[in-house]
Structure formats: structure tokens, C-alpha cells
Specification:
The complex is a heterodimer of chains A (244) and B (247). Chain A has 244 residues and is an all-alpha fold. Chain A is built from nine helices and no strands. The relative contact order of chain A is 0.18. Chain B has two domains: 167 residues, Rossmann fold (3-Layer(aba) Sandwich); 64 residues, no CATH class. A six-stranded mixed beta sheet of chain B has the order 6-7-8-3-9-10, sandwiched between helices. In chain B, strands 2-1-4-5 form a four-stranded antiparallel beta sheet, with helices on one face. Chain B starts with a strand and ends with a helix. The chains are: A mainly alpha (244), B alpha/beta (247). At the A-B interface, helix 5 of A face helix 2, strand 6 and helix 3 of B.
Chain lengths: 244, 247
């Protein structure tokens, strides 16, 4: 455990160095934004719409008391999406999608000596490979999460009007009620922290492997497991820190 | 000239290199030969700095590489080119981008200048019209040649080749050997080749170091390797039916 933590810190020291060539870094950053961010839009959109729809329907079904106004459904859906579902659940999904991709990409480069080739050339391979990924995820994941929030709320609205459980006006009234912008700040802090954890932990597992294809598979699995566990732990810590 | 002095290296309890002292001369193809598991790849990785040595030092033309800091090592590494056993081309890049990679990282040349250099290097390894191909579209021999082109793109002083003709047919292997030898002489590079291919030994072995059980067992050249009177070396050289018949 301590050996891994030490190895992780040493790797991060190598990662957070000034890039060898800034022009190459910016080019890599755009490539990573495409592969880690834009390519994840589809899965984020689908999951968010359905998640929002389910939250809205469950809330509507569980409100029995006539004292609770109908617009509570819209309010609850919005709060759930902003506070928990978009930043945490979508980050867990991304840990599976981009975490395994990063670990297997870097792991394959390690076992096929591509990383050694970079080092022989005098390139800081950790910085070249990992730094643009971290920056790309920390910049693009908040965009994905904001899109997820909107789509989740939209999914809830769609479910409500198609099922006829509550009216469109009530739902919209709900999502406009008691809005606190700090909720967005809280979600963004969580998202950026989770983005860093997903990429750095996955990169560490990919970068340190030795062996062959089997090890790449193991590293990929480990990266998803560890980053998911860390997301859950940091979710609790950040919630405790920011909301209490 | 590169000199490795008193190099020892262990992995856990297993000592792989035992007090090896060997020198590699410029303008010559220096071969490290030995059986699989004898420690020749570990020796090469110690010399290029991919492994830290436990004992001893590596000297690049008077610069003690093994005791340098990472930043200083990086400067020397810009003078190195290395051809890996599997080529180690970057999967996500085209042939052109692979060969251009070191130029992008360490020069301020314009795209036109870099492209000219890429085409010059590819022509030197007898490859044309492959710039836009991906590594997955190349044959084994082409991968090795692109890797050589990438290794020489920055005009290195030192060229390292780890089993350059493994997995290749005899004709392609011979071609790769001749190519490396020709490049070495033309650019006066210090070339070090790891191999257990006897054709390479007899074809391009200007200097030969035989490693046996992690120790330097014999040194010489292709003219005298066949009549060394060294028991272990003879066993290694004359282990195939072909070499037995030649003998």
C-alpha cells in the first residue's frame, strides 16, 4: 500500500514538470480532449437522460401526501442530478470508460517498449503521456457533467409529460425553485477532483506494469477498481467538507 | 567511444551481470553476443540508462553517464538512437509522424525541413511512399527499417540495436545488418548490436563481445571468432547444423 502510494507520488513528480515542447503539449491536449471527452459524450448523454427520467418517476410515485406539491418532482430531480448523479455517478461511469482505456493504452506502450523508446530519446515519457490526459480530463469532465445535469433534468421532464404523472408547468416550476448556485460549485469541485483521480490512478497502473498482455488486462481492471473506490471515498470527504 | 567499466547488476537475489568491462568503438559495429538469458539485453539497457547499475560506470566519450542526474542524462540521450527488438513504433502515429517525433521534440525546424529530413532518413533505409501508413500496416522488416529511420533522424552519435533481425527471414535480416553497418560507417556512429544471429556475427562483427552467464567471456572480431579456442564460445557458435558443417 505505502509502496504504491510512494510510487504514485514519484510518478506525479515526473508528470508535473514543464513539458519538453509546449507546441507538442497543446497538440496532445487537443487529441486527449477528443478521445477522453468528446468520445464520451454519447454514453454520458444516454445515461443522464435515463437517470433523470428514473429519478423523476420514482419521486412522483413516492409522493403520496396531497400536502406535498407536484413541483417537488422537478425540484428533487434537479437537486439529485446536480448534487450526486451527474458528478458522482457519471464520474464512476467515466472511471470505467476512460480509466480502463488509459491504463490499457499506457500499459501496452510499456510492454511494447514504446515508453522505453521515448525515454531513450530523452523525452520525459510520464509528462508527455500523462500530463495532457490529466489536463484534458480536468477541463473537459466539468463540461460533460454540466451537459449531464441539463440532460438529466430534461429526461425527467420527458418522463413526466409522457407518463402524465405531473404537468410540464409543475415540473418546470420545480426545477426553478430554490436554486442555490453553490450546488454547481460543489459539483464542479467534486468533478475536477474525480477527473484527476481517474486519470492519475489509471495512468499509474498502466505506467508501472511489466510483462505482457495479461498484465495489461490486470492493470486495466485494477485502475477501474481503485479509481472507483477513491471516487466513493473522496465523495464522502468532499461532501463532509463542503456541505457540513 | 563508449566504455562500460566493472558493471554489475542484480534483480533481487539473481545477479545478471558480474563485473563486466567492455568498450565500444566509433565507426564500427560492436556486437554483444551470447545465449538467451546470458545478460546481453540487461547490459545494453544498463549502458543506455534504462536500468541503473548496481556497481561500475558507463562512460560516453569521457562523460560518466551512470552518475549523472536525470536532466543531464536526457541531454546525452538526445545523442542516442535505439532500435528495439519489436521496433517500438508509436501505434497511434503514422510512419511520418514516428520518424518526425524526435525532430518535433528537440528541434525548432520548420515543417518543410522536418519533412525533408524524414524523407531523407526513409530513403536511407530504402523506404519510399510509406509516410502515411500506420505501423499496423507494415511488415516486420519494414517496421525495423522505420525504427532505424526514427533512430537516426536526429543524427545520433551512438546507435543501439537490440536483436535487430529477430523474427525476420534470412534475406531481410541480412539486408537490415548491411543497412546498420552502412549507416554506422557513413555517419561514423558508435553502433552496439545485441544479437545471437551467427550471420550477423560473420557479416558485420567489427568488434565482438561474448557474454556468458553474465560475464565477459571473450572479445575479438569476425575474422577470429571462428577460431577462438574458447570452449563456451565454440559451443555457442557451432551449435547449429550449418555452422558445424562450415567448421
Amino acid at each position: 500500500m505505502f509502496r504504491h502510494f510512494g510510487g504514485y507520488l514519484i510518478l506525479m513528480r515526473q508528470v508535473f514538470r514543464r513539458p519538453d515542447k509546449s507546441k507538442v503539449f497543446w497538440k496532445q491536449l487537443l487529441v486527449e480532449m477528443q478521445s477522453l471527452g468528446v468520445d464520451s459524450l454519447g454514453i454520458v448523454a444516454i445515461i443522464s437522460i435515463f437517470m433523470g427520467a428514473v429519478v423523476a418517476l420514482q419521486t412522483a410515485f413516492n409522493i403520496d401526501s396531497p400536502l406535498i406539491p407536484a413541483y417537488t418532482v422537478g425540484f428533487t430531480t434537479r437537486q439529485s442530478m446536480i448534487f450526486e448523479f451527474s458528478p458522482t455517478v457519471i464520474s464512476l461511469i467515466l472511471a470505467g470508460k476512460i480509466g480502463s482505456r488509459i491504463a490499457s493504452e499506457i500499459g501496452t506502450m510499456r510492454v511494447t517498449e514504446q515508453i522505453d523508446a521515448m525515454q531513450i530519446m530523452g523525452v520525459n515519457s510520464a509528462n508527455f503521456l500523462i500530463f495532457p490526459k490529466i489536463v484534458a480530463a480536468m477541463v473537459f469532465n466539468p463540461i460533460l457533467i454540466v451537459i449531464s445535469m441539463f440532460l438529466g433534468v430534461f429526461g425527467g421532464w420527458l418522463a413526466c409529460i409522457t407518463s402524465g404523472l405531473i404537468s410540464s408547468q409543475d415540473y418546470i416550476h420545480g426545477i426553478r425553485s430554490w436554486f442555490d448556485p453553490f450546488g454547481i460549485t460543489y459539483a464542479m469541485i467534486k468533478t475536477i477532483t474525480f477527473a484527476f483521480l481517474i486519470v492519475s490512478v489509471s495512468s499509474y497502473h498502466g505506467y508501472r506494469i511489466s510483462g505482457g498482455a495479461l498484465e495489461v488486462g490486470k492493470a486495466s481492471t485494477k485502475s477501474v477498481v481503485y479509481s472507483s473506490i477513491l471516487i466513493i471515498i473522496f465523495n464522502l470527504l468532499l461532501t463532509q467538507l463542503l456541505l457540513t | 567511444m563508449i566504455e562500460a567499466r566493472n558493471i554489475s547488476k542484480s534483480f533481487g537475489d539473481k545477479q545478471v551481470l558480474k563485473d563486466i568491462t567492455v568498450s565500444f568503438e566509433p565507426g564500427k559495429t560492436n556486437l554483444i553476443i551470447g545465449q538467451s538469458g546470458s545478460g546481453k539485453t540487461v547490459l545494453m539497457k544498463c549502458v543506455v540508462g534504462l536500468y541503473e547499475v548496481d556497481k561500475g560506470e558507463v562512460d560516453y566519450d569521457g562523460r560518466i553517464y551512470s552518475s549523472m542526474k536525470i536532466k543531464e542524462k536526457r541531454e546525452i540521450r538526445k545523442e542516442l538512437g535505439m532500435l528495439f527488438q519489436g521496433g517500438a513504433l508509436f501505434d497511434s502515429m503514422t510512419v511520418q509522424d514516428n520518424v518526425m517525433f524526435p525532430l518535433n521534440m528537440f528541434t525548432k525546424q520548420s515543417f518543410k525541413e522536418k519533412l525533408d529530413r524524414v524523407n531523407f532518413c526513409l530513403e536511407h533505409v530504402n523506404l519510399e511512399d510509406v509516410n502515411d501508413l500506420m505501423p499496423s500496416e507494415l511488415s516486420g522488416g519494414m517496421i525495423k527499417r522505420v525504427a532505424i529511420a526514427r533512430a537516426i533522424s536526429l543524427n545520433p552519435k551512438y546507435l543501439f540495436c537490440d536483436e535487430p533481425n529477430s523474427g525476420l527471414d534470412p534475406m531481410t535480416a541480412d539486408h537490415i545488418d548491411n543497412l546498420i553497418s552502412e549507416i554506422t560507417k557513413r555517419f561514423n556512429m558508435t553502433t552496439i548490436i545485441n544479437t545471437h544471429d551467427m550471420n550477423s556475427v560473420l557479416n558485420i562483427g567489427d568488434n565482438i563481445a561474448y557474454i556468458h552467464k553474465g560475464q565477459l567471456w571473450w572479445e575479438g572480431n569476425k575474422e577470429i571468432v571462428m577460431r577462438s579456442n574458447n570452449k563456451e564460445l565454440d559451443e555457442f557458435i557451432f551449435s547449429t547444423e550449418l555452422t558445424k558443417r562450415i567448421k
